[in-house]
Write a structure and sequence with these properties.
The protein has one domain. Helix content is 62%, strand content 1%. The chain is built from 14 helices and two strands. A two-stranded parallel ribbon has the order 1-2. It starts with a helix and ends in an 8-residue tail after the last strand.
Length: 352
């Protein structure tokens, strides 16, 4: 796969060897995802540990450093694109307005689903499995009707807004292992746009609202989310709604701050403002998530992977948090933009 990473350029076609390599990785990751889903259904405690405490904590780092790799091998993406690979789709094209509305729906879905982890998903393997299956079925239905990644991977997927927020300075461009030809199914294509930026690429009103909500609101939302304990049972509507209180309060505060700053800084610095909020969001995540993984969280066993309290001093978590924060500030704010895209655009289809 070395050539695929180092010398592949726009319009090149993947060699048979590279295709086999990417398909092998896709199948291996898909098999891992299927295994986790099986565990969620039949060994719920193990499944929730694997999904919420191993897979999900790795995702934001991957989105920052190598979003293109993730876009190639995401198990859910591989699943929903299977009908297109098999030619079992109607290949409809979304209008710009339709695509924009799907993007906004994805942002709203993210902010609705994530607090439910505290209420339901973190402590229920079966509920998490139902969520994954529901997302997969939805994605397959959309992929049946619409061309390639336009409706799901670049549209309604709740993870995609986070990819766009964090993925503005990817390590490198890698070949597109799903699309053999570019059919211009979504404009702008997040996979092929240089240094993708949710704010800069927002042209329609729906896109502008989406960019505003995810860029301005996510850092505070993440901060607030980590100040809510998991609920072992939901006894009332009040208890259910309580899981939204802190995340949405943080969301409102950071969104207000972002709007005020955006209105009062020169246009030249607005991309930097976007990057500051992106760095803040991912830094908040790991500042709180790493301690909870290793037994230093403020809510006991919530989010616990392995308890290292007997072996590590408390200050070690602060040191690790300082290191991850410094890394994300460097990567998103200091490091020179690579002027590349997540994936290398394949040759245009004559039918595009």
């Amino acid at each position: 796969m070395a050539r695929a990473v180092s010398s592949f350029k726009s319009g090149d076609q993947l060699s048979k060897r590279s295709i086999i390599a990417w398909r092998t990785v896709q199948f291996a990751l898909w098999l891992a995802g299927a295994t986790i889903l099986s565990c969620l259904l039949f060994i719920p405690a193990t499944g929730t540990l694997l999904f919420w405490n191993i897979l999900i904590p790795l995702a934001p780092l991957i989105f920052v450093v190598a979003p293109g790799v993730w876009r190639n091998v995401c198990p859910l993406g591989t699943t929903v694109l299977l009908p297109r690979h098999l030619g079992l789709t109607r290949k409809k094209r979304l209008t710009v307005s339709q695509s924009s509305k799907l993007n906004l729906a994805a942002v709203i879905a993210l902010f609705v689903i994530v607090p439910l982890r505290h209420a339901v998903f973190n402590n229920s393997g079966h509920a998490t499995a139902a969520l994954i299956i529901g997302l997969a079925i939805t994605g397959i239905i959309f992929s049946y009707f619409y061309e390639w990644k336009s409706a799901w991977c670049s549209g309604l997927c709740p993870v995609h807004p986070v990819e766009k927020l964090y993925g503005g300075n990817a390590l490198m461009s890698v070949p597109n292992a799903h699309c053999s030809q570019c059919r211009n199914c979504v404009v702008p294509c997040p996979d092929s746009a240089v240094n993708i930026n949710a704010v800069a690429d927002a042209k329609t009103r729906y896109q502008q609202i989406s960019a505003l909500l995810i860029t301005g609101g996510l850092p505070g939302f993440i901060w607030g989310w980590f100040h809510v304990p998991d609920e072992n049972s939901i006894s009332s509507l009040q208890t259910f709604l309580a899981v939204y209180k802190m995340p949405m309060t943080g969301f409102a505060i950071s969104l207000l701050l972002y709007v005020l700053l955006q209105k009062n800084i020169p246009e030249l610095y607005k991309r930097t403002l976007h990057n500051i909020f992106a760095a803040a969001g991912v830094s908040f995540y790991y500042w709180y998530r790493i301690p909870s993984l290793f037994g230093f969280g403020q809510f006991g066993k919530d989010g616990l992977l392995v308890n290292l309290q007997p072996f590590l001093p408390a200050w070690s978590m602060i040191a690790i948090g300082a290191c991850t924060t410094a890394f994300f500030i460097y990567w998103l704010l200091v490091r020179k933009p690579n002027n590349g895209s997540w994936l290398v655009r394949p040759a245009y289809s004559k039918a595009a």
